[in-house]
């Protein structure tokens, strides 16, 4: 199957502009044959909020909000599965840094993930995620989701891998330089594919690093984007490569685990 990322520069607090831009880029990725497309964290809202009121004004419910419905429509039109980050307001008014996964006709809205490890000033606006890590079976693959700073905690990707993920979708707004170097190792130690969809640009003095990438279960960087251009990246992968956890005839990275010794 072909998988891909959308790397874009969202416009802060401009929902219509961001959805319009995403529509074009999703279309480009679909034309290149991608069946799973990952968009950045908070692709529809921008990231560097100043006040909680800004977030409250633009955040939406999932799945009934405009952003999720837009993604469902795009998935139906292009016959793709999509993972994308968005600001969620739940029925009680609580705010979450979330991601949704949607699919083509017959699938629609599939599910959501709420970011567990909040980074820096996100803690001023969002509640920590409370849904845990979940793997979504889309038929052609099993997809786990984590968001941006979740990568810093090895337990995030390991949990998704142990739950059966073939691919980890990783919407991001990366500002630190470490993730592009670390994500191939995360893929290696869990023997899964990973798709990091980052954003570019500068927002209220905060600069984002781009370099979206797709990594293989062997720590190969299959594709890496630029640091400063809006683009889509598409790679063909063999999902079966993520289901073989053997390093050699004696070592299986999951069967060799000794969790009884990992407790502090």
- Tell me the Rg in angstroms: 17 Å
Count of individual helical segments: 5
Question: How many β-strand runs?
Answer: 14
The parts where pLDDT drops under 50 for at least 5 residues are none
Distance N to C terminus: 41 Å
Q: What's the helical proportion of residues?
A: 10-25%
Strand content: 25-35%
In this structure, how is the largest beta sheet organized? Answer: 6 strands, mixed
N-to-C SSE string, H for helix and E for strand: EHEHHEEEEEHEHEEEEEE
Strand order of the largest sheet: 5-4-3-2-1-14
* Average residue pLDDT: 98
**SS-based structural class?**
alpha/beta
* Shape, principal axes of CA atoms: globular
Supply the key terms.
globular, 5 helices, 6-stranded mixed sheet, 14 strands, 26% strand, 264 residues, alpha/beta
Short description:
It is built from five helices and 14 strands. By secondary structure, the chain is of the alpha/beta class. The radius of gyration is 17 Å and the shape is globular.
